[in-house]
Amino acid sequence: MQRIDWATLDSSAQQQALARPALPDAAALAPQVREIIAKVQSEGDAALRAYSASFDKLDNNPLQLSLEAQQRLLSQLSPERKAAIELAYDNIRKFHAAQLPRDIEVETSAGVICELKNQPIQSVGLYIPGGSAPLPSTVLMLGVPAQLAACPRAVLVTPPGKPAATDIAPEIIYAANLCGITEIYTIGGAQAIAALAYGTETIAKVDKIYGPGNRYVTEAKQQVSQDPRGAMIDMPAGPSEVLVLADALANPAFIAADLLSQAEHGPDSQVILVSDSQSLIDQVELQLSAQLAALPRKEIAAKALAHSRAILTPDQATAVAVTNAYAPEHLIVQTANAEALTAQFTSAASIFVGQWTPESAGDYASGTNHVLPTYGYSRTVSSLSLTDFFRRYTVQRLSATGMRNIGPAIVTLAEAESLEAHANAVRLRLAALESAAQDKN
Amino acid sequence: MQRIDWATLDSSAQQQALARPALPDAAALAPQVREIIAKVQSEGDAALRAYSASFDKLDNNPLQLSLEAQQRLLSQLSPERKAAIELAYDNIRKFHAAQLPRDIEVETSAGVICELKNQPIQSVGLYIPGGSAPLPSTVLMLGVPAQLAACPRAVLVTPPGKPAATDIAPEIIYAANLCGITEIYTIGGAQAIAALAYGTETIAKVDKIYGPGNRYVTEAKQQVSQDPRGAMIDMPAGPSEVLVLADALANPAFIAADLLSQAEHGPDSQVILVSDSQSLIDQVELQLSAQLAALPRKEIAAKALAHSRAILTPDQATAVAVTNAYAPEHLIVQTANAEALTAQFTSAASIFVGQWTPESAGDYASGTNHVLPTYGYSRTVSSLSLTDFFRRYTVQRLSATGMRNIGPAIVTLAEAESLEAHANAVRLRLAALESAAQDKN
Same structural domain for residues B293 and B431? Predict the structure, then answer.
């Protein structure tokens, strides 16, 4: 880790110390991804099979994973893993069930009723990365809210397995089935996003796409979300990151383990330690070396650590200010006063309080969602929540009384905005009410 | 209006009948907007003044509207307009206050506490279009939720007035002040969006930008939202649109007035009438001609009507299906059974129920928000709501008991995903708890 003594930096160097590594240039990738999307749009399933042959070396990807194939995979799963997935499912379900949005009805003026209503997104597509490790936890993070929202259709796509396309990790199938998802496709990459956004013969189009992926997937999500005929997406993506704020009394072994669990995600992961204790930083560095050596993914983690930082601050208040300026995706607070500090954080996407709360807890099984805004986006973008699987719309109804009560103000405002037809739509109605009233008299 | 007999069309012609007009090619605009943004980033206030000189023919735009200038403008405002703005403010406030998000705390397993918390966006920028007509109503639609959310900073930008930059419509200032906004800048266009997203000497950067604008503004919002150092935006934009669903008993004069109040927004507005009654369609056409002739903005409205459609359906169920397929921004339901029909709509952004509920009501004063997803985006994007001025984040805390309860499942799941460091962060803690327990015995 790069050591930084915060107090010795001027403000521009401080800004630099909190800068994220530049993202790989999406512009370089964009034309290739655009070509893939165009080919899936024009050739459908044939394009998907062709990409599977060239990218995945699979001659005959069936694209859809049959229910029989799903049953066969499930029979391979150990009871221990099933139980662990069920525990995570239950906790994620409990936390997200508490987020069910409520409809609202307000009579704003007499006879003027306004409603805000929630409706599940009709068709959602969940992207689950494959590659180096299967991610059943991500299936739960996307599938549980889709199930609770009662989205009429939820489908899952994940890269084909090896040696056969159908060799998907049984954990993914088990988690999907728990969430009521059986429509599963063995495709990945930009071509999977294109298939979800535009549809093919086999895969019907979805309205919104969720889930993390590599930079081809990210660029494809970006592109289809810019096209009104494409699909909406969950949130902008960036490399995962953690900031640990610790004091002199924190456990250096725990902190090193937490930093490494972020670092092993990928070489572009960012890991930051902020402390007002030089001695704590020293001890964490020692622990990092010792623990790193024993990790199977030590090369990935070492690369991530190489561009990571240990920031020494003159006091805890500065450590909090540094944290808020960075706006971390994950914030782990390991200080004696962790609970009291929590209210001071203004920009973290997910906060882990105290020594018994590692990031792994939220990654898997505490109940919170692990799909989080990163790269500083947490200042404005929310943690994935149940509400992201709904759309909110309004309904209003005016009675004749309501029209009489607010109609004259509407006419005045429309005139102020020189929108005469807007005024007219109300004047006509007020005149009709007036003449009806006179008929009565 | 173009007449369409739905039953005579094949499915591809039906799809074509509901297609929106192609948007002007953003790609053509993109380089010019990119140049404006880059110039504001590098030259700050000087760039803003230079654009004001070339675009607005204003030699010395002060950029910020002083409190004195605001007071002077307010003194020009009639009591009648003040009262109308206040009525609208009160209703919008009542409806949005009912939307205050609640924080959630759930103990998912014993000793595992998860929270979902809401925090106002720290700094928001509200764009209010100028040009042909000032839009105080949009100030309220953006300013009221910013005030209710208690965003620590809310600023307003609007194109400079004429002949002096400070000649802003008093209605805009009055509405802004009601919402507690006094930081007001007299700049518009792509340069205003750039100033909000990146900051200049005079204008501090904001976190999120809200509000409608012309295609330069829209393209600039799109560009700054793609840059992690830029700013988030409220929603994708498109031309405004209304669909009126009416039966044989509906009032043709009301319907024509509603269609025209959408058509006068701009030549790209889209206006659709769907009915199972040929006679109603005929009567609305007659009313349209009569009412159009009397409108000051009749040329704009006539252009919009030229690409608008009257769709005859064989029955009401088909009319509902057509409406759902189109996914209108505004849906006005003028049928005898309007109330009962409302539950059948699956994609409209805002629904206006019954003959006394013109679109003007929601545009100005009923209380609902008039910033709505258009161009089919309402299938997945929500009506602007109070929640769009908050970010949601999670907090979790495990006690030693909590770690004991879910730790083993986390280890199992991390192993299943081959993320050994994730497992390790938990194993270390379980071991520490184990050894502490043995010390006690």
Answer: no
Q: What pLDDT is stored for residue A232 in this prediction?
A: 97
* Chosen from B34, B94, B113, B116 to mutate, greatest number of chain A CBs within 10 A: B116
Q: What is the mean pLDDT of chain A?
A: 95
Determine contact, residues B380/A228, Cβ cutoff 8 Å: no
Same domain, B32 and B12: no
Candidates A229, A289, A326, A366, partner chain B, best to mutate (most B CBs within 10 A): A366
A241, A330, A359, A370: which is the annotated catalytic residue? A330
DSSP run (H or E) holding A402: helix A400-416
| Crossing angle of the two packed helices A136-149 and A170-178, in degrees rounded to 10 | 20
CATH number for the domain including A163? 3.40.50.1980
Q: Judge if ipTM > 0.90.
A: yes
C-alpha span between A85 and A136 (Å, rounded): 8
Give the count of domains, chain A.
3
Question: Known binder of ligand: residue A183?
Answer: no
Q: Same structural domain for residues B292 and B195?
A: no
Question: Stretch B220-242: mean pLDDT, rounded?
Answer: 93
- Looking at residue A134, its amino acid is P
A379 within some domain: no
- Both A32 and A11 in a single domain? no
In Å, how far are A172, A192, A197, A383, B319 from A221, measured between CA atoms?
A: 22, 10, 9, 18, 33
**By C-alpha distance, which of A235, A297, A250 is closest to A269?**
A297
B403 contacts on A by Cβ (under 8 Å): 356-357, 361
